[in-house]
Automatic annotation (TrEMBL):
GO BP of this protein: proteolysis
Protein name per the record: Leucyl aminopeptidase
Source superkingdom: Bacteria
Keywords, in A-Z order: Aminopeptidase, Hydrolase, Manganese, Protease
Transmembrane parts of this sequence: none
One GO molecular-function entry: metalloaminopeptidase activity
Domain Cytosol aminopeptidase span(s) in chain numbering: 306-313
Family as reported in the entry's similarity comment: Belongs to the peptidase M17 family.
Coiled coil regions, renumbered to chain: none
Length: 473
């Protein structure tokens, strides 16, 4: 899927400056302007409030613009997110005094993004001529907007085949090795994942997309993404309102794809394994049923308490596969539970890890990048809620509480205790538009995860190389 960055100007395009000022520095900044411009801003009520934008007039028209920071940090991309739609349509600008080059470029491009694949008519946001040092921000924006496109695309146009194809295309761009596990190999090696997607229509069969990249001497980092391209809930059918946004149920996979892109673009010193479980949880003659007992790749049996708790079944097989490769770290992301949203709301992904250094790295980096996650506990005593009288465990709790914690406890059963692991329970959606964050799919936490991973890699050091032959059973 090709993604064009709206709001990006071509080199040498004539442009005007956008200056950035905080309330505390406003009077000093006004003192450096031509008297008539300073008076114009004072008379028009410019107070440098957050997202407040004004144009500076001259006899020939407009000479510059000024953006107020309010109490926002100048290194937050969200401080700049309103600019592309607030400045005159199609106009071109460059960063002036007070702007953080990386944050401003990223915020501008994320604010200019709109999902327009199925819309006609022109769209001409104001464009930014980025500074030379902003290339990392442009690459990050491209990865995030690609993930947004994947999440926003309707399920009819982004099914398991298309999601897997996005992994293959990413691999081709970066010289990675890729493959698809499907059919008999999927049935033998990923039985729980296959069961979730077995009822999908022809052409939308379940599969696992695999991407491998990096130097064998570097530590192996495994990324696992829940790629449920549409979730009806299965036989435990969701109500209509609950199903309305379920094209976004592959949001965890989209975030892991974007993270993989960011890792490879930055040439991070890791050996990368990306696993995307691409399925559709449909209703049909082959639907798995409440009360069924599924086998997993690990050999554990799972009683199905609810077919709408399918994402953890997908991840169970992916986590087992990842653990077999002896990684230095496993990270998974999934739109897994409504309970995490009840606890933390839509903007704060829930982070689970029983490794203190891993949890600290991701929490600290997320805060620093203005891309926060919030750690929730893996509370041992709730583990008994997953007990089943007929199988090794059940896929939903026996009590209607702590749903996000119990889901994390389920996943941890598929990760060896000596392998560092973190699980991210995300919403992957903006319910309403805000500067830099338009309504629709969102690549939550990716920047903080990338920066936290970079910090962790320095702790890992080199590991003994391991053959990376693709396992197909």
């Amino acid at each position: 899927m090709d993604t064009q960055l709206d709001g990006l100007a071509a080199a040498l395009t004539p442009s005007r400056p956008v200056h950035v000022v905080a309330p505390a520095g406003l009077e000093a900044w006004l003192g450096g302007l031509a008297p008539e411009q300073a008076e114009f801003l004072r008379a028009s009520g410019f107070k440098a409030r957050a997202q407040q934008i004004a144009l500076l007039p001259t006899a020939d028209g407009v000479s510059a613009a000024v953006l107020g920071l309010g109490e926002q940090a100048p290194d937050s991309p969200w401080a700049y997110g309103a600019l592309p739609l607030a400045l005159p349509e199609g106009s071109c600008w460059h960063l002036g005094a007070g702007a953080d080059p990386q944050a401003a470029t990223l915020g501008w491009l994320l604010g200019a993004y709109r999902f327009r694949r199925f819309r006609s008519g022109p769209y001409h946001p104001a464009r930014l001529l980025p500074p030379a040092e902003a290339e990392p921000a442009i690459a990050t924006a491209r990865a995030i907007c690609r993930a947004r496109d994947l999440i926003n695309t309707p399920a009819a146009d982004c099914g398991p085949a298309e999601l897997a194809a996005a992994v293959l295309a990413l691999g081709a761009t970066h010289g990675a090795t890729t493959g698809i596990i499907e059919g008999e190999a999927l049935a033998a090696g990923f039985p729980a994942l296959r069961a979730v997607g077995l009822a999908a229509a022809s052409g939308r069969e379940p599969r696992v997309a695999v991407l491998r990249w990096g130097d064998p001497a570097h530590p192996l980092v495994a990324l696992c993404g829940k790629g449920v391209c549409f979730d009806t809930g299965g036989l435990d059918l969701k109500p209509a309102e609950g199903m309305r946004r379920m094209k976004k149920d592959m949001g965890g996979a989209a975030i892991m794809i974007a993270l993989a892109e960011s890792i490879m673009t930055a040439r991070m010193p890791v050996r990368l394994l990306l696993l995307v479980g691409a399925v559709e949880n449909s209703v049909g003659p082959l639907s798995f049923r409440p009360g069924d007992i599924l086998r997993t790749r690990k050999g554990l049996t799972v009683e199905v308490g609810n077919t709408d708790a399918e994402g953890r079944l997908v991840l169970a097989d992916l986590l087992t596969y990842a653990a077999e490769q002896a990684p230095a770290l496993i990270l998974d992301a999934a739109t897994l539970t409504g309970a995490a949203r009840v606890a933390l709301g839509p903007d704060l992904p829930a982070l689970f890890s029983d490794d203190e250094s891993v949890a600290a790295a991701f929490c600290n980096s997320g805060m620093a990048a203005h891309d926060a996650v919030w750690r929730l506990p893996i509370h041992e005593s709730y583990g008994s809620w997953l007990d089943s009288p007929v199988a090794d465990l059940v896929n939903v709790a026996t009590r209607p509480m702590a749903g996000a914690v119990v889901a994390a406890l389920f996943l941890r059963r598929f990760v060896p205790s000596d392998v560092p692991w973190a699980h991210l329970d995300v919403y992957a959606w903006n319910d309403q538009s805000r500067p830099g964050r338009p309504e629709g799919g969102e690549c939550q936490a990716m920047r903080g995860l990338r920066d936290g991973l970079a910090a962790l890699v320095r702790q890992f050091g080199a590991t003994k190389p391991r053959p990376d032959a693709l396992i197909t059973h």
